[in-house]
Amino acid sequence: MPAPTRSILHVDMDAFYASVEQRDNPELRGQPLVVGGSANRGVVAAASYEARTFGIHSAMPMAEAIRRCPELRRVKPRISHYKSVSEQIFAVFREFTPVVEGLSLDEAFLDVTASVALFGAPAEIAMAIKQRILDRTGLTASVGVAENKLVAKIASDLDKPDALTVLWPENYEARLDPLPVAVIPGIGRKTRTQLSAAGIGTVRDLRVADDRLLEPIFGRFTRKTRDRAAGCDARPVVPSRAEKSISAEETYDRDLASREQMNRELLRLSERTASRLRKSGLAAGTVHIKIRQSDFKTYTRQRCVKPPANGTDQLYAVARALLKVWLGRNPGAKIRLLGVGGSNLAPAEQPDLFAAAADEPALPIDQAVDEIRDRFGSTSVGRARTLDGQ
């Protein structure tokens, strides 16, 4: 077999959110489980493999998931916890290569072409990564190994969960040809309907189809689409870029109707966003809020902050002022979703603890809260004003 020109891994954690919950709570292991919102208005964020046997999948309305499986176990998302687990996983990736392109908390491309001399064949690197993730987090991952990103991503999904699938060009026809065209990124439901009407259902059908069938569907992208069906993809793995914004938002089971409720939730969201900014060593030059009313109309409002800030009280003060103005123009509004975010990010400056004016935020308090939460969990300490009834 000729040596591959590139060695690309696509690592995809298995049912990540649900697997973390089952790992942390033995009572949930082996049970049909979903992570998501409420039964009446929420959606499924993640489904365990036990739940998937009922046809339950992410983005499904929670009410439909419960209809399919009345015994379904449900837990609310713990995003900050998942992020901390994700940091452990990405730390493993970077022990093998600096060329890591994160796609989400639980998914990434790795270019290990230059790592082979140090760590062995691409499949050996993939196995080592899987084992190291399991040892450190107790979670399983599925890995696809190929010459390019397209095939690596397809490969990682072929034998899930806990899979390692290697696909080199000499295996493309045998493994890719029988697959449905839906495995090729960018071919959605509408396009699949058009392809089906043209008698094209598999990757092979697409690869060998005549231009006269494909051009009415793909136009100037016909050649690129056929190349993808043949497993061709020249895109490089691009190391993850710096975040452009950091935010937190929440959809509520019951609409927020009172100013007290809104301000309390705004403080909680400001606290979450500020904590993420500090962990990233960043400060926000712009603070923005997101508001979705009960009729689904969505609004955003923003304000510049000088100098850039990452203190909870700083973000909350701006967010509260923005919300006050919006409520003044929308009296009696009920809020279904609320969010607080920071953008125009810049490296955070070390605060001068001895020169702080009396009206400046107590950053050392924020830092102490961060340390406590890092050690004992995100719910271990909180501000009294975020508690119901305060």
Protein architecture, described:
- By secondary structure, the protein is an alpha+beta fold.
- It folds into three domains: 168 residues, Reverse transcriptase/Diguanylate cyclase domain (Alpha-Beta Plaits); 53 residues, Orthogonal Bundle (DNA polymerase, domain 1); 142 residues, DNA polymerase, Y-family, little finger domain (Dna Ligase, domain 1, 2-Layer Sandwich).
- It is built from 15 helices and twelve strands.
- The strands form three sheets. It has a five-stranded mixed sheet with strand order 5-6-1-7-8. The chain has a four-stranded antiparallel sheet with strand order 9-12-10-11.
- Helix 4 packs antiparallel against helix 6 and helix 13 runs antiparallel to helix 14.
- The longest helix has 21 residues.
- It starts with 7 loop residues before the first strand and ends in a 14-residue tail after the last helix.
- About 3% of the residues have low confidence.
User: Structural class, please?
Assistant: alpha+beta
Order of helices and strands: EHEEHHEHEEHHEHEHHHHHEHEEHEH
Count of domain modules: 3
Question: Can you tell me the CATH architecture of the largest domain?
Answer: 2-Layer Sandwich
SS element count, helices: 15
Biggest β-sheet description: 5 strands, mixed
Please report the distance between the alpha carbons of the first and last residues. 69 Å
Subunit arrangement of the protein: single chain
Tell me the number of strands: 12
**How would you describe the shape?**
globular
- Mean pLDDT equals 88
CATH class of the largest domain: Alpha Beta
CATH topology (fold) name of the largest domain: Alpha-Beta Plaits
* CATH H-level homologous superfamily name of the largest domain: Reverse transcriptase/Diguanylate cyclase domain
Strand content: 15-25%
Low-confidence runs (pLDDT<50, min 5 residues)? 351-362
Helix proportion of residues, in percent?
25-40%
Radius of gyration: 24 Å
